[in-house]
Write a structure and sequence with these properties.
Length: 330
Amino acid sequence: MNYAQRFDEIENWRDGLRRERTGREVIREIEARIGRESDPRVKQILCRFLAHEHDALGEREAAEAVRRADPEQEILRWRDDWRELHTDDQLVRAIEDRIQQEPHPLKIHALRRILAREQRKRGNFRASESVYLTDFEADPSRPQPLLCLARQKMIDENQPDAAMRVVSRAIEAALHSGVFRRKAFGLKARIALKLEFYSMLEDALRQIMSLTFTKGNLDTEAERDFLDRAPAGSLDAEIASAYDEYCRVRGKVSTASDEQIDELVLRLSRPRWQKMALIVGKALTELEARKLDATEDMIAERVRAIVEAGQLSAQGNLSCWRRCELMLPN
């Protein structure tokens, strides 16, 4: 049983409890099942349902306590606390040391994810690739490490052929696990567009439209940037029209143009230093409100172009939004 199927099975079990038991009894049953469960991924799913039940009873503190106990959230807090006391150049070694000492598989996964990002933002692409592959081999049911590696190959290393090989493996894992399938096919579509493999792009569009979803199928929302950025006449008109309708039904009317993104980034910028992450986040929120499709990578790419054109000043690493600040030139 893959992740999506397990999630759906637990949700159906919880729904059955809700029909027969009171809210307090449902909580006790979930807690008892957590105590019996040995699989950490299943425990994580159960804890999410437990937090929802506490929320339903208005028990905010209890719900937050359950969420704070999530292994991956614990690692993120550890990283943030560590940064408050140490210099950033020591973080890679600290993560590597903790990985050697950590027995919990979900915490190790979270640590590897952070480590790969740290290596990637430093330009240590071979090191980050090694971490991503190690993480995937430890749990081949997770497509996320390969999806991150494929993005690195396409965006940071400008190796679309290598990115296509990686994303093909990621798609296999996504289909097997039932999670991030649309995200994987969307990434394949972007790589195919960059390579001008239009028949492959058409196939990715067909695959996305054929997907069905339950709550257990964790994934991104519908995306259309690769459709709108394909050259006129490069795609089969029937497929392009069908995918356009697929996106419109899901609230994605068109893709934000470079000019729209540039205008928004400059409007959100100030004649004082602001975190790049703050500007990218605000821009993404506003574009979504305007039903314009855009990705964080698209906005970050335009930020780099604006900086290179001299319309924005930057200090820090443009590849690491938390460690980069932007300002309108005086």
